[in-house]
Q: What sequence folds into this?
């Protein structure tokens, strides 16, 4: 995700400051009320890799995504916090909160960061906070802010499909710095950090969640062929979650909500951890068929009581 319009060159200097200075940029508890969905892409070429050489990034991803478990948490209101003291350099507000789709993607072109704030810090680095809720930005250019001060709320503005805050750490020239690995070392070897209270790394996550009209095969899940955007009124309604590095004993929770409320809640325990696996659960259509409308499924992975990952999927019954 590029946010070029908010990344302006304000100084010819912009050296990396390796001393930790960042606190958590969101009012949540990692592993309980939030989790890290994606890290900075450490792979300079095509493809992606996080700083530990794992799968938790996306090609050319320039920041860290800290996600909420569901839309209800966003609607309750979660503050985005200044990760360090500094001066507000730029803000943007007024963009609509909605899930990015192919139909509306052009409306955020050049404004992929959504409602946002950029803060300059005394060490020469900047932090950029993206995807905040419309009307929630509570600071202005020139304001001095303190670490931990609310600057907005988590939303769905810009190039996003789920509630999270994207934080980028930038040099003055706009080049990104990975706060988990500001040095050259990779895969956990002699890593420095810019976090005052380092957030533990977990390689496990969810590639995706999706709906299908029957229990899919693994190849169809992996390729995306299993996914359905629409399902007939008389077809089975099946939700699946596609996970990576799930461990033995992890729990995968699956929930579907439709026009009439909750359709089902289902839980499965992973009996054997694998590099990649999926689980699926669904229902046959009721007599008379599924009510027309929008359906949303949620897949959550827990390790004990610790939140590991969460994804959602949408499907329509015409």
A:
């Amino acid at each position: 995700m590029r946010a070029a319009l908010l990344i302006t060159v304000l100084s010819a200097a912009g050296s990396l400051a390796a001393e930790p200075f960042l606190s958590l940029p969101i009012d949540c508890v990692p592993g309980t009320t939030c989790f890290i969905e994606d890290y900075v892409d450490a792979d300079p070429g095509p493809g992606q890799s996080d700083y530990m050489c794992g799968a938790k990034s996306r090609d050319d991803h320039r920041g860290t995504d800290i996600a909420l478990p569901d839309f209800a948490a966003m609607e309750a209101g979660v503050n985005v916090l200044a990760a360090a003291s500094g001066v507000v350099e730029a803000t943007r507000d007024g963009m609509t909160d909605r899930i990015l789709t192919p139909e509306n993607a052009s409306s955020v072109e050049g404004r992929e960061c959504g409602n946002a704030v950029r803060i300059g810090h005394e060490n020469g680095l900047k932090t950029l906070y993206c995807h905040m809720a419309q009307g929630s930005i509570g600071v202005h250019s020139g304001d001095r802010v303190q670490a931990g001060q609310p600057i907005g709320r988590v939303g769905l503005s810009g190039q996003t499909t789920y509630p999270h805050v994207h934080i980028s750490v930038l040099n003055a020239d706009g080049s990104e710095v990975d706060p988990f690995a500001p040095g050259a070392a990779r895969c956990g070897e002699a890593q420095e950090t810019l976090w005052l209270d380092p957030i533990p790394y977990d390689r496990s996550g969810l590639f995706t969640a999706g709906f299908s009209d029957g229990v899919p095969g693994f190849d169809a899940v992996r390729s995306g062929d299993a996914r359905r955007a629409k399902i007939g009124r008389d077809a089975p309604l099946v939700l699946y979650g596609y996970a990576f590095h799930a461990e033995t004993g992890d729990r995968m929770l699956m929930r579907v909500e439709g026009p009439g409320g909750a359709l089902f809640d289902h839980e499965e325990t992973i009996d054997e951890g694998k590099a990649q696996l999926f689980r699926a659960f669904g229902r046959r259509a009721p007599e008379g068929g599924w009510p027309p409308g929008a359906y949303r499924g949620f897949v959550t992975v827990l390790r004990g009581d610790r939140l590991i990952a969460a994804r959602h999927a949408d499907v329509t019954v015409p």
Q: What stands out?
A: Residues 1-17 have pLDDT under 50 and may be disordered. The first helix runs from residue 71 to 76. The radius of gyration is 20 Å. The chain has two domains: 1-199, 205-317.
